[in-house]
Amino acid sequence: MFKAIISNAMKRNDYLCPKCKGHLNAGGFVIFSTKNKRKQRGLILLSPKVGSYSVKHHDGYKFENGEFIDFFCPICSVDLRAKENERNVEIVMVDENDAEYRVLFSRVAGERSTYLLSNDDVEVYGDDAVELDDLYEDSEY
Length: 141
Fold this sequence. Notes:
By secondary structure, this protein is mainly beta. The protein has helices spanning 2-9, 132-137, and strands spanning 14-16, 25-26, 29-35, 41-46, 55-57, 70-72, 88-94, 100-106, 114-118, 121-125. The strands form 2 sheets. It has a 5-stranded antiparallel β-sheet, with no helix packed on it. β4 (41-46) and β5 (55-57) form a beta hairpin. Mean pLDDT is 87; it is low at 1-10.
């Protein structure tokens, strides 16, 4: 019983693929299969902390600032581009209270913008983030 209380108290955000609902976090990172503009493929590991922009990848897998990176679920291989605006990736986050959020973040290398959406609430993170209305204006939806 004591063990269950500790594990619930230490629960962290969980990130899921919006299609297969597979778990994307492992080893303290959120993991994606990706492809750069040169059609090279590699894994990218991101910090699970919303608004943190630390990135890890293999030294041989290169991309330039401003380059669009294609993100895929490493489990089901679905393209994770957000339907509202293709500049962003969309995944699902479940917090320590089991509340579910849509997370949008830029797929442009070096661009720092993240949007946490839940019902009518929006939290915006990053120096390059725009207002959510402007984000939707740039889309086809």
